[in-house]
Amino acid sequence: MHILDIFEANPTTFSFEFFPPKTDKASNDLFETMEQFQELQPSFVSVTYGAGGSTRERTHDLIVRIQRETNLTAVSHLTCVCHSEAELAAILDRYAESNIENILALGGDPPRNLPNHDRANDAFQYADQLVRFIRSRSDRAGSRGFGVGVAGFPEGHPGTPNRLREMDNLKRKVDAGADYICTQLFFQNHDFYDFRERCDLAGIKVPILAGIMPITSRETLTRIAELALGARIPARLLRAVERCGDSNDSVAKVGVHWATEQCRDLLDNQARGLHFYTLNRSDATRQIYEYLGVKDSLALARRNGD
Questions:
Q1: 8, 17, 166, 226: which is the annotated catalytic residue?
Q2: What is the pTM (predicted TM-score) of this model?
Q3: 35 catalytic, yes or no?
């Protein structure tokens, strides 16, 4: 389903993000996990993207498999890094041929195995250029063209300390043709509300989805530092984790409780959507759904024909 149709049909969206596994076995395990996610009837799922080698191909393969073998709407991440214009065109054509309608366009970072990659060799340096290119290829993706999302950073973009310039850059991405914004993860909702207000002041009117990652173990904290450079973990949350000692079960309970309260407050304050960074596991997200009553609400909406 095209992302614009999803937003039209759902006043609040619920979506999940996965990363491409590194082995065939892990890919099959993830697909089994997706069966559990299907029960939650998300608005869409997205798959992250590695800029080079096998990770890139696994993203493509996973997206196409989701489209072919599930009833989920898949959104593929796509980055500027390590790509010529011809390579990007080929990727988009492959997605169009597989009926993949939605792309999340990102600037991206060089892969770890290519730390000295010269960005000057890439066709595009910035995400707004990629958005514009995707739009130029949209005639290959049906009458609606590709649905395009871009990233937002409630705590500030790590590469743009000047927040006024940051909003100018975001506005360029939206003006280039982005249909929605999906934010980086955050742990304090006032950062999201401030970001949403900054978008409004900048004349950005597209839907803004709030990125949520439940902490499920001490290792997750390290993972967060890797995935979200500069993410602020509140001292109150860190203190709660410290009280758990060596018990990851207790840490997971703290993380689910914190994320649930975040989501409850976001829904009360009319967040347009919640986007869960799952780390390819369903347990925490399923618990949050249960505590929020989201699944029951979706079932009621279906019965009422909404």
A1: 17
A2: 0.92
A3: no
